[in-house]
Amino acid sequence: MTNNRLFIGAEKVFNARNLSPERVARTFIAPQDFIDLCQETHTVVMGPRGSGKTTLLKMLTPRALDAWAAPQANEIREEIPFDSIYIPSDIHWEEQLRSLSASLAPRLDYVALEGIFSQAAVTVNILLAVIDAMFDVIKLRKPEAARPMEDFLEVIIDGWKLKGVPPIAGAVRESLEARFNELFILFRRLASDITRPFEQEKLPDWVFLDYSAATRLACTAFDNTFPERAGRKWALCFDELELAPSWLQNRLFRELRSTDQRFLLKLSTSPLPTIGEDVWAAHSEDYEVIRLWPHKKVKARDFSSLLALAIIRERLGNEQGLAELLGGSTVASGDEESYSRNSPTWHVFRELAEKDPSFRALLEKHEVDPQNPVTNKRRVGDQVLRKAKPLAHFRAAWLTGDSLAGQRRVRTRKRPRLYHGVEDVLDIADGNPRWLITILRQLLRKREEHPERALPLPAEEQEEVLAQTSELFLGFLRTLPNPRGGGVLGIPLYELVEILGTAFEEHILNRPFSLNPVGTVRVELALPEPLLNCLRWAAEQGALIVMDPVEQGLDKGIEGRRLRLTFLLAPYFKLPLRAYKEARLTTCLRTGGLEESRLKQMELGYA
Amino acid sequence: MLERPMRVTEIEVSELKSSPIDLFLVASGYEERCTFAAKSLAHLDVRKKVALAFTDRRQEICRLENDRGLIELGFEMVEASGSSGSAAVDMIREVVSEPRSDPYHIVVDYSAMTTVWYASIVTYLCRHADQDITVDFLYVPAEFAIPLPAQPNKYVEALEGFSALSSPERPTALVIGLGYESDRALGLVNYVEPAVTVAFLSDPALDANFVDSTVEANRPLLRTLGEEHVVRYPLGSLRATASLLESCCLGLLKEHRVILAPLGPKPLALLSMLLACTHSGIEVWRVSAGEKGAVKSRKPLGKILCVKVDVGAWSSTPPKLTVGPEY
Fold this sequence. Notes:
Number of helices of chain A: 26
Number of strands of chain A: 9
Shape of chain A: globular
Mean pLDDT of chain B: 89
Structural class of chain B: alpha/beta
Largest interface: A-B, 49 and 49 residues
Helix content of chain A: 40-55%
Oligomer: heterodimer
Largest sheet of chain A: 5 strands, parallel
Strand order of the largest sheet of chain A: 2-3-4-1-5
Structural class of chain A: alpha/beta
Shape of chain B: globular
Low-confidence stretches of chain B: 315-320
Number of helices of chain B: 9
Largest sheet of chain B: 7 strands, mixed
Order of helices and strands of chain B: EEHEHEHEHEEEHEHHEHEHEE
Radius of gyration of chain A: 28 Å
């Protein structure tokens, strides 16, 4: 009955959240990020949806590590100096907390009540994770330690206020889980009758447990009972923290610098978490940040090619390589030969020079003959022809004589083979494992349909798959609801993406040829909050890529950051897989067609 | 969710004449079917008739005609915002304010009501009503009309009063009642990323065109789910529909957090709410595009589907429809 997928309509893709740790481990390929995450430091793992945050955190759990059978697994397992406690969160959990909190809003004592409810629910969730991890450690790490657990469980029962529960593992767990329902009933009654008095002293003691103190207590009891793990730390792994209540996010980010030495925090969150003013800047040296998307320091291709190779070999056998299956990209390949006379690019330069006066002028300015666009000057080759190559391919493919005469560009229906080959496939996946898996599975199906054909796969078939995936992703964005806090004034995500894509298309294809056209945006300061929420939401979904995260620590917010559209959307908007010059965000929004009145509404805060 | 005993049965509309009615509640909007039940049941012995009149779209399609028709039938017009159920609940609360030995009898035509309105009524019945009440929920099916282009999803959230709290370690099961607006269900699946998705498809529908239209609007979703995850239910038999819905949800509830998202016909939404009332842990979510753009009239198909909900004490008549355990 299980179906896990990136987006419906595409291939089935595993979402680690819905998989057991053992299942995650079965196909896990360790990137360098995982090795970094295994270090004895606090770590914040940041990334958009599908970037592999949950996989990394789940792989730290005792069950996943135990089940992991890769060649390097033993070495990594033995070196990890902690046992992990995986604390889940998801959109469903977020909505459950939000919905019950909102139902308390009509009460005059809302603030106090909501705080108690939220903290109690979060604590129960964490303690369940703690007990599960401890039982796993007992089961997996020390099978010979079949000593009675009563003493340990007695401490838990007493400290976690589980009065009357027998010291049996299953009973402790069941009682803890039952607390969700008790909490729900308790607070829903208060929500449904706003006149019902709230007497704090009548609430059960466990409602006021602090997750941190209760966890410390359990860990101390555990280590006293099982002293053989002395010296090992506990890592609290909070997954999808962006979906947790804001007080928890702030508290955990604060605890990165002042938590009990026996504990490590491994936090996964969105690319731009909304955290409190006092939290973001200080003590960034106290934790490591792992960003799971390509940015100024990280190229996407290294891990992607490893993953791609594993997928290909799993489906087609050991002898198949990535380059063999996909060949090279016409646009992205950097061969010297590609600029030589009669090369494909030479023909493209000539073709474009004939119909695009601005390109012809550029060549002439650099003393390159438009009829024979070659050069023996290294500087011109590097700085003009190399840079012009991808742009020339795109403009030659999409521009018509009419468009260059100032008329609307006529688009051909046929795709001109601008996206294919190893480089393009890896770049379009943009470092996102889910996207890469989706693309590769479709490509591999093409191969399986025609095993008799010579490789690489035909360029047009590769382009068809990439273009379909691009459209599918835009369709997926269209179905997403408004961002949290986006309100009625915010721009729907798909519309924001359409506007920016249209603006970049305008700069890259329609305006006079430039070696560095506008292709990215810089978010100005003091923009309206609904717009900032939409941008954060877009980054969270992977539609926008933050290109220049801060060197150390966390970004304060999206203001001041440079953004580009994910390359997954490039085929839809007919854009090259390059990050070109930046322009101000609002300028691009206007270029892309956002009405001035909507910007004004967002500034004013009302329609 | 249930805080008062409740029994749900399917009845024929002809059975309504058996007892006097304390309140007949309808909605007056732009849809042509707004007055159908009120006219068809004009002969009933009703003490109070109230039409909740939408505060927007006062001039569109059949609205003026509906207002006039309902006033002629003796309905008092009460203005109500589509996004708040308080007017509907206030009407019921006012009628059932006095304690009495016989159960109160209320009839609600929810055909043209917003989800929030009848969700509020259901919430009131199962949580707040301190009198014994019988409510007959009437639904007037509409003729098929080609759907307008779907607006993108704007809000995805639990209906007020229909949430739950459970461990996020449990996987989510999403049970969707398919509607004929394309991308609505798809968006929900993409957003929630459930471990299990089950789609409820009205087949046979009361008008066969609905089946084709729903299948067409949800083709990518249905293709990916496969037949084994699609439950076809006969909308004409609420009893059979309720039974399918209940067995599906209870099966899933053992290991999952269950979200019911009835995006399709209103009777399925009502049954979902009633099921959530009788089984804790089942949530009902809504997916909404916010403000509607253009709207279409909905012509009545000529029949009425009726669900009787008894809150508190009830007679010994065996139930024809079962939603949840017997109390």
